[in-house]
Amino acid sequence: MADDEANDKSDGITDVPDIPIKEATQPPIHSYSATDKAVAEILAAHRGALGPVLDNMAASGAPGKSLGPLTGFLSEFSASIRESQKAAFGPGFEKLSSMAGLGLNAGMVSNLMKSFPATPDLGLSLGATSFLSSMSSSMDWTKLAALSTSTLSASDYFEESDEHNYAYSEEMRSPASYFERDEVVIDSFESLNKAIAQLIKKNPDLPLVWRGQQNADWGLQSSLYRKLQEQNGVIQPSEDPKGEQPFPTETQMRQAEARLIEYARDNWRLDEMHSLELLARLQHYGAPTRLLDVTRNPYVAAWFACEADPGQDEEDARLLALATRPIPKKGEEERVSEANTRVKISDLPQTALPFWHYFVSPEERQLADWGTGAKRRVWVPSAYESRIAAQNGAFVLDGVPIVNAKTARSFRRGAAGEYWSKADLLASSSIYAKTYHPNRAAKANGPNLAPTFTYRITAKAKAEIRDVLESRFGYNFPTMYPDISGSGRYLNEHFDDLTK
After folding, report:
1. DSSP assigned state of 355
2. What is the value of pTM for the model shown?
3. 429-483 pLDDT, tens per residue?
4. How far is the C-alpha of 205 from the C-alpha of 270, rounded, in Å?
5. Exposed, middle or buried: residue 173 (CB in 10 Å: 0-12, 13-18, 19+)?
6. What is the signed CA dihedral for 285, 287, 291, 295, rounded to 10 degrees?
7. Phi then psi dihedrals of residue 12, to 5 deg
8. Dihedral pair phi/psi, residue 210, rounded to 5°
9. Distance CA 135, CA 291 (A)
10. Cβ pair 68, 149 in contact under 8 A
């Protein structure tokens, strides 16, 4: 969980990634049978619904574009087939069910259609069949559609996204300016204990994950987001720039991810690895990703904030507690409390790209709570690296904030009518970070933004806190980085101390 610091511009990341596709002109692989004929007849019967949906999607572009219409259609299509066609088509129904409802194999659909020249035209253009054929046979549309259920965000706040970034506010000097209003200062190990206990007391039912950063001036930002800021030429507020700043967009994040994943798969033989696990492993070895390292243990996060580092020892540190769901409004208590924010790979579709690449429009992103700040998905990966278990580590998965004038009014910076600008928010965090004072119970807000609590650990207190955590809790460099790469890093950084 060590800190992973730092628009399509210098790198020219502008195109939708080229994903290999299976050509729709390949020879048919299905033999003529009563079952196949029954399936073809079912498809033909649904021509009115199926054709326009797929043709519309094909016309919208290539894989990586919006899949929302298809996932919704397949769910409805499968349900209608199961209720009305099972008795009529017997074996044909069972085959179609496996294709459309539980994991559509697009190649099977296109090949099946070509197996029956006499079958009525289904209204599927070559573009549509090519588009479908590009999808993996293991794609589970039901799982993809399920990610857009149990929405926690308020839809009327995210109907549109403002493409302008605007300039920094006069008060914005660094991310610390944004966090300062609601932060609590920790100046000893005793005050650290009290701060954690007070937060839990005031918000006893709120699920939290924690993150420690060695410098209080750093934003809550993923390494990929920082890389793209640099690539775009974003000037930090400390330099007092004028005018809009080209912060990374969700589209740019997706495009960069697609390029990195494709390159890693093609050149390091990683085709069989799930896209989410691939990102985690790449981040472990230094590649930039959008995954935000967190831990479920506040004292582990505090150790990372106070970790010995000559370049940061004289700087204040920051400890962050991130709620994974919002405070429910009246009447929404049960719905919000039952929302599942835990991500399991077994619940995700086996897509070539991560699931969030299929939520493109503001409407789709809102339904999936991707970039709304309402549902912070937390993935606890398997312990394929020893440090994950040692750190009680996890990753927060979320999108670039969907910011507009209406959502911005939830981020007051001073007197009534004064709000942080979009540039202020994006300079402070690559995900929504609506701050609340840790010593008070958090309250519901209009968009249903999940709370963020923040603490400033003084530079003077770092050594004391680190000493107690290492001597009494056993949290030190070898236990936090128990793998061989951690050993190599430590020996390199402390070479003079160990050899003199």
Report:
1. G
2. 0.75
3. 999 999 999 999 999 999 999 999 999 999 999 999 999 999 999 999 999 999 8
4. 40
5. middle
6. 30
7. 65, 35
8. -125, 155
9. 25
10. no
Structure tokens at 212: 């420690």
User: Which residue ranges of the chain lie beneath pLDDT 50?
Assistant: 2-40, 42-43, 46-47, 49-50, 53-54, 57-139
Phi-psi region of 61 (alpha: psi -120 to 50; beta: other; left: phi over 0): left
324-341 residues labelled b (16+ CB within 10 A) or e (exposed): bbbbbeeeeeeebeebeb
Please tell me the predicted confidence (pLDDT) of residue 65. Answer: 39
Hey, what are 125's tokens?
């253009």
Contact 248, 6 (CB under 8 A): no
Strand, helix or coil at 379? strand
Confidence (pLDDT) at 289: 98
Structure tokens at 166: 């605007």
Q: How many CB atoms neighbour CB 499 within 10 A? A: 7
Q: Of 163, 221, 160, 220, whose CA–CA distance to 365 is shortest? A: 160
Rounded Cα distance between 183 and 456, Å, is 7
| Strand pairing category for 342-343 and 377-379 | parallel
Name the residue among 320, 309, 304 with its Cα closest to residue 469. Answer: 304
Burial 232-256 (b: 16+ CB within 10 A, else e): bebebbeeeeeeebbbbbbebbbbb
pLDDT of residue 140: 58
Q: What is the 3-state secondary structure (H, E, C) of 391-456?
A: CCEEEEECCCCCCCHHHHCCCECCCCCCECCHHHHHHHECCCCEECCCCCCCCCCCCCCCEEEEEE
What are the φ/ψ torsions at residue 343 (nearest 5 degrees)? -100, 130
The predicted structure's pLDDT at residue 88: 42
Which H or E run contains 2?
none
CB 19 within 8 A of CB 91: no
Cβ distance 36 to 30 under 8 Å? Answer: yes
Q: In angstroms, what CA-CA distances link 500 with 81, 489, 495?
A: 76, 18, 8
Residue 88 to residues 34, 92, 99, 481: CA-CA distances in angstroms?
13, 9, 18, 61
DSSP 370: S
Q: Where are the alpha helices (DSSP H) in 203-339?
A: 223-232, 250-268, 275-284, 298-306, 333-337
* SS3 state of residue 371: coil
Distance CA(382)–CA(494), nearest Å, equals 31
Does residue 246 come out as left (phi exceeding 0), alpha (psi in the -120 to 50 range) or beta? Answer: beta
